Amino acid sequence: MNFTDYLIYAKSQLKNLNQFHRIRIVLGNESCDLDSTISACVYAYFLHTTCSNQKEILHLSVMSNNASTFRLRTEVRWLLKEDYSNVICIDDINLNELHNQRKLDIILVDHNYLNSNLNENVIEIIDHHQLKNGSIMLQDPSKIKIEYVGSCCTLIAEKLFSLNFKMTEKVAYLLTGPIVFDTVNFSPSAGKTTEKDRQIYAQLQTYRPQSDNDLELYENIMKSSADVTGLSVQDLLRKDAKQISGSNVCLIMSSLPMNYTVEDLIGKLKTLDDINEFLSENENADGVIITSVKVENTVTKRQLGFYFKKIEHTQLINKYIRSEEVNLDLQERPIPINQARIKLFDQKNVLASRKQILPLIETFIKDLVKSDIS
Ligand SMILES: [Mn+2]
């Protein structure tokens, strides 16, 4: 069974879940980015084709997002082409029901933590994000693979190679997409590439006869990911969002599409209604931290901004995020809107992406107690 046939088969089985004894879900992270999506789909395909008991066990890749947010992932649609419509989103399947029926296993790819009771169903983790307090610990340590490489697809490909998977040109191509995208086509100034990313990339190339020009592949993914045609302020904030919850504060970290800056977004705001509505639709969060990357003549520029409903939160985060321990080297910029609860900065430490910033913010708001903010 090839990759396309597997996705069609998997989606068609959503109405036959009762016929299986076990449903094994490969779950991508909540941002549903290209890396997450390809990692989940390819790994589920691998597990399905190597499973000796396909009648009893169903392997599905599931995106942690609903279909209306997933549709904002223009780069995923570009890379997957006709396979895009067969991707399964979280609103296509009732995981809680499978959990209650005690037939659910979950494999996390591109994240290592679930903020729900489904945590106890996790049987394997393959990820390149930092482990944190509360990360899932599995009884069998060999089922946790966490390594800080540029792309989770590097780890998925490594695993497939080590287990004698019959690599095809198509699967090699799909895995290559996120690797070149996440490493900014192996750009030294982006600082994302590890030796393993290069090694695995070279190994994947041997399955792709026409792979001489991956600059074109990279530029196509970039172009489709940067396409903001028709996106509203809320879409822009929603496209790549991750939630951080402390006991007293909940906030969202949104990464904007490539080359669309925080300054562009703030310039688009006429009132705060759009941001407030975005927050109320996301667990009624207290605020949002927004990051952006723009590459100009191979120079990477980053911006960071935030908005909190309460001025006390703005002040607290402002103090923390500019501190030396966070080390982002932020330079404040003026904004075109008279609003003390919004801040905009150029981030001179361009090596720090959301992957590095998010755990710091997480630690900070975990420690916040009510007396700090009231
Ligand atoms: Mn990733």
Describe this entry's structure for a reader.
It is a single chain. With 374 residues, the protein is α/β, with parallel strands linked by helices. It has 2 domains: 3-220, inorganic pyrophosphatase (n-terminal core) (Alpha-Beta Complex); 233-373, DHHA2 domain (Diaminopimelate Epimerase, Chain A, domain 1), CATH 3.10.310.20. It is 38% helix and 19% strand. The chain is built from 15 helices and 12 strands. It has helices at 3-12, 34-49, 67-70, 74-80, 95-100, 152-162, 169-182, 195-205, 214-225, 233-238, 262-268, 273-281, 311-321, 354-367, 370-373; strands spanning 22-27, 57-63, 88-89, 104-109, 122-127, 144-146, 241-245, 250-255, 287-296, 299-308, 330-332, 342-347. The strands form 2 sheets. A 6-stranded parallel sheet has the order 3-2-1-4-5-6. Helix 2 links the parallel strand 1 (22-27) and strand 2. It is globular, with a radius of gyration of 21 Å.
Distance between the termini: 59 Å
Helix content: 25-40%
- Briefly note the structural class of the backbone: alpha/beta
Radius of gyration: 21 Å
Cofactor: Mn(2+)
Keywords: Hydrolase, Manganese, Metal-binding
Family: Belongs to the PPase class C family. Prune subfamily.
Protein name: DHHA2 domain-containing protein
Q: Concise description?
A:
The protein is α/β, with parallel strands linked by helices. The protein is built from 15 helices and 12 strands.
